[in-house]
Amino acid sequence: MVAATVPYGRKTQHSPAVKEVHVLWITAGLGCDGDTVSITAATQPSIEDVLRGAIPGLPKVYLHNPVLAYENGDEFMKYWYLADDGRLGAFVLVVEGSIPNEKIHREGYWAALGTDQRTGQPITTCEWIDRLAPKAVAVVAIGTCATYGGIHAMEGNPTGCMGLPDYLGWDWKSKAGLPIVCVPGCPVQPDNFMETLLYLLYQVAGLAPMIPLDDCLRPTWLFGKTVHDGCDRAGYYEQADFAHEYGSPKCLVKLGCWGPVVNCNVPKRGWMAGIGGCPNVGGICIGCTMPGFPDKFMPFMDEPPGARLSSVAIGFYGRVIRKLRGWTMDTANKEPKWRHRRPELTTGYHP
Ligand code: SF4
Ligand code: SF4
Ligand code: SF4
């Protein structure tokens, strides 16, 4: 009889502490669904790998996202009501889009999902968050709108909208003791989000320690470095070799790149399957992952104020270094003089 072929890794793994986890993903904040669309491009891991059980050690995961779901209407909404009644089991709440302030208008509402079965009235996005956040094992804000307010929360907006930490409180904790987890980006880099969700699923399963977050509630391993730290063009910056028009391979700071002061790993990670990465492929960094986005980075395409000083300061040093490196490179591009076919040995060898 042939022995059952269970992979060795599966035999040695701990079982997850919970067998099933639902991901309730509300896209009814003020947003464009761009983060949902973005994660369909994830590969590390892909959403398919997580949902189809291809990743060892994970509980069974069910996704409820209105843009990606096969169900619609009441069939889709039933999971939300079950979660509200405390009958869904363990779930992670994902919030996409900024949270409007429903206290500042006299009538109507800014954003809603589904209908209250008792009153026949729309259930506002804020009400869903109020109902579900206390029951979730973890709450994740995806995209800069949901994390810090983003584009909809610009100066002059009429909705008074904000990010999830502003709404729930920066010190808020889930019933499992987790802070709000913020994965910013406009849109989010797909693997950044899926990797964070995977980490949280492992944590819910009892197989990972507390997720490390910075002061802005971002995963530290994803947002601990700047765009500039990982930019393909940083060598040009260091030599004060700046682009003055698009299409140049040189540093884009004079064209409005904010990379030196922006926490984002996109130049290192790429956008999809390692390809792309804003400045690497010619696009200035406009700081889309940052709590101050967009107001503090506007007008886009103007040289950042701090960049003028730093690029002047590096100008003298960079020009001298570039010159010296040019001479050294000329030398390094020439072979040593003893490589010849004359009838004499000039290598310096003495028998
Ligand atoms: Fe759309 Fe950007 Fe807001 Fe995401 S963060 S919902 S991509 S506007
Ligand atoms: Fe830094 Fe931007 Fe220049 Fe890249 S293009 S080196 S991120 S300033
Ligand atoms: Fe946003 Fe800049 Fe990162 Fe590009 S490099 S995703 S513009 S923060």
From TrEMBL:
Which Gene3D superfamilies does this entry report, sorted A to Z? Cytochrome-c3 hydrogenase, C-terminal domain, NADH:ubiquinone oxidoreductase-like, 20kDa subunit
Positions of region (Disordered)? 335-351
Keyword Transmembrane on entry: no
Q: In which residues is [4Fe-4S] cluster 1 bound?
A: C32, C145, C186
Instruction: List this protein's GO terms for biological process.
Output: anaerobic respiration
Look up the domain of life of the source: Bacteria
Q: Which residues bind [3Fe-4S] cluster?
A: C285, C288
In which compartments does the protein localize?
Answer: Cell envelope
Q: Mind telling me what this protein is named? A: Ni,Fe-hydrogenase I small subunit
Q: Which organism is it from?
A: Singulisphaera acidiphila (strain ATCC BAA-1392 / DSM 18658 / VKM B-2454 / MOB10)
